[in-house]
Design brief:
The longest helix is centred in the N-terminal third of the chain and has 19 residues, at 53-71. The chain folds into 2 domains: 20-286, HUPs (Rossmann fold, 3-Layer(aba) Sandwich); 297-405, Four Helix Bundle (Hemerythrin (Met), subunit A). The chain contains 13 helices and 14 strands. The protein is globular, with a radius of gyration of 22 Å. The protein has helices spanning 53-71, 87-95, 100-117, 129-146, 174-183, 224-235, 250-265, 297-302, 307-315, 327-344, 353-364, 369-386, 393-405, and strands at 20-23, 28-31, 37-42, 75-82, 125-128, 149-152, 155-158, 200-204, 220-222, 240-246, 271-277, 280-282, 285-286, 323-324. A 5-stranded parallel β-sheet has the order 5-4-3-10-11, with helices on both faces. The chain is α/β, with parallel strands linked by helices and 409 residues long.
C-alpha cells in the first residue's frame, strides 16, 4: 500500500530543541532523546468513512512530532497502518451493498487526499492489515506455542496474565478496563475465556466473511491489536520512540499491543512514550461514526475552505485537550490565516529571529501549538502596527510557519 506525497519541509537556521512530551504510561512529561533516526508508529484509520476532524486532529499532533524532530536535524522513520479488514468495515459494506474491498480502497484514497491537502507528512511505510497477514500468522503461532495464547472454539485469544507488565500503559483498574473493552471492540462477556479482558488474536473463519490461510491456526483473520504489533515490530523493532493515536486507543488497543509485543520479545517497553491526542466533539458529543456527528475534511474542502485554515483550526487547540468544533472555530482560523498571509506579503518587517526560537520552545514543550500561534500573532501585530526594516523577516516567518506548523503562507 502506498502513502501520499510529501510536502517539502523548509530548513531553518539553527537547530530545534529536544521534545518534551506527555507519556500516558507515566502520566508525566518526558524528554525524548532519539538517535539519528527517530522512530514513531501512529495507528491509522479503519476505512469505512471519510476523514473527520477527530482524525485530522490526531494526525496533526503526530505531524508536529515529526516536524520538531526534523528541526533537530534528525531523520524520522514513521510507520502507519490501515485496518482494511474489521467488523465496522464489513458492516458498513453490507449496509451499503458495496464490496468491502472497494469500500476500503475508496475511503483510503480519500484519506490520502485529505492528508495531502492538510500537508501532513506521510509515513515511510503505510501498511494495510490484509497485506500484513503473512507476518501476523507466525506471531500468533509463537504466542500460542509459548503458552501466552489459547484456543477457544477455533478462535485464538491472548492471555493478558502472560505479561507481568499488563496495565502499565493505561494505568486503569480492572473494572474500567472491562467496561472499555466492551465499548471498544472486545468481548469480555464471552464464556470460556481465561480472563474477560483477553483479546482475540485470530478469529476463525465465519460464514460470509473474508478469511485467509492461517497455517496451523486455520482459516480466519487477525485481531485488531496484533495487526499493529506485527507492523511495528517488522519496521521499527522494540523500544521505538513514540506510539501514537487518539486517547480512546490507550485502552484497549495500545495496552494490548504493548503486552503482545512484550510477550513475544521478552523486552519492555514496546515504546518509550505512549502519546495520545484528545477528542474533538460536535454538539456536545465526541465525534464518532456510530453517532454520525461528523465534520469531514473532504466536505470542508469541497465547500472551498482552505486546508491551511483547517490546519490552523486544529493547531489552535493543544493536542491533548478535548475540544468542540464550531463554526466560530473555523471562522477564527480563516481570519488568522488572512492576517498572517497579509503580513508576510510585505517586502520587509520586524526581525523574526526571536519568533523562530519562541515557536521552537513552544513546540518542544509538549507540542504547545497554541503558544506558537500566539507568538506568530504578536509578530503579525507588530508588522501591521509599524512594520520593520528587515527585508528577510517575512520570508523567515513563512518558512518557520511552514516547517514547524505545516501551514503554507
Amino acid at each position: 500500500m502506498h502513502a501520499w506525497p510529501a510536502s517539502e519541509v523548509p530548513a531553518l537556521p539553527g537547530k530545534g530543541r529536544d521534545l518534551r512530551i506527555h507519556d500516558t504510561a507515566t502520566d508525566g512529561l518526558i524528554t525524548l532523546d532519539p538517535g539519528p533516526v527517530a522512530r514513531i508508529y501512529v495507528c491509522g484509520i479503519t476505512p469505512y468513512d471519510a476523514t473527520h476532524m477527530g482524525h485530522a486532529a490526531t494526525y496533526n499532533a503526530f505531524d508536529l512530532v515529526q516536524r520538531v524532530w526534523l528541526d533537530t536535524k534528525r531523520q524520522v522513520h514513521y510507520v502507519q497502518n490501515v485496518t482494511d479488514v474489521d467488523d465496522p468495515l464489513l458492516e458498513r459494506a453490507e449496509r451499503d451493498a458495496i464490496d468491502w474491498v472497494a469500500l476500503a480502497e475508496k475511503e483510503t484514497a480519500l484519506f490520502r487526499e485529505d492528508m495531502t491537502a492538510l500537508r501532513m507528512l506521510p509515513p515511510r511505510q503505510y501498511i494495510g492489515a490484509v497485506e500484513a497477514i503473512p507476518g501476523i500468522v507466525p506471531l500468533v503461532e509463537r504466542l500460542r506455542d509459548s503458552g501466552a495464547a489459547y484456543e477457544l472454539e477455533g478462535d485464538i485469544y491472548f492471555s493478558v496474565e502472560s505479561d507481568p507488565d499488563f496495565g502499565k500503559v493505561s494505568r486503569l483498574d480492572a473494572a474500567t478496563m472491562r467496561l472499555l473493552s466492551a465499548e471498544r471492540g472486545g468481548d469480555p462477556d464471552r464464556p470460556g475465556k481465561k480472563n474477560p479482558l483477553d483479546p482475540m488474536l485470530w478469529m476463525a473463519a465465519r460464514e460470509g466473511e473474508p478469511s485467509w490461510d492461517g497455517g496451523s491456526l486455520g482459516r480466519g483473520r487477525p485481531g485488531w491489536h496484533i495487526e499493529c504489533v506485527a507492523i511495528a515490530l517488522d519496521h521499527l523493532g522494540m523500544g521505538f520512540d513514540v506510539q501514537g493515536g487518539g486517547s480512546d486507543l490507550a485502552f484497549p488497543h495500545h495496552e494490548m499491543g504493548a503486552s503482545h509485543a512484550q510477550a513475544l520479545t521478552g523486552e519492555f517497553p514496546m515504546a518509550k512514550a505512549y502519546v495520545h491526542a484528545g477528542m474533538v466533539a460536535l454538539h456536545g458529543e465526541k465525534m464518532s461514526k456510530s453517532k454520525g456527528n461528523l465534520v469531514f475534511v473532504s466536505k470542508l474542502r469541497r465547500d472551498g475552505v482552505d486546508p491551511a485554515a483547517i490546519r490552523l483550526a486544529l493547531l489552535a487547540h493543544h493536542y491533548r485537550s478535548d475540544w468542540e468544533w464550531t463554526d466560530q472555530v473555523l471562522q477564527d482560523a480563516v481570519a488568522r490565516l488572512d492576517r498572517w498571509r497579509a503580513a508576510v506579503s510585505r517586502p520587509d518587517g520586524p526581525s523574526a529571529e526571536a519568533l523562530v526560537e519562541e515557536m521552537r520552545e513552544a513546540l518542544a514543550n509538549d507540542l504547545d501549538a497554541p503558544t506558537a500561534l500566539a507568538a506568530v500573532d504578536r509578530w503579525v501585530a507588530l508588522q501591521q502596527e509599524r512594520g520593520g526594516t528587515d527585508e528577510g523577516a517575512p520570508g523567515v516567518v513563512s518558512r518557520a510557519v511552514d516547517a514547524l506548523l505545516g501551514v503554507a503562507l
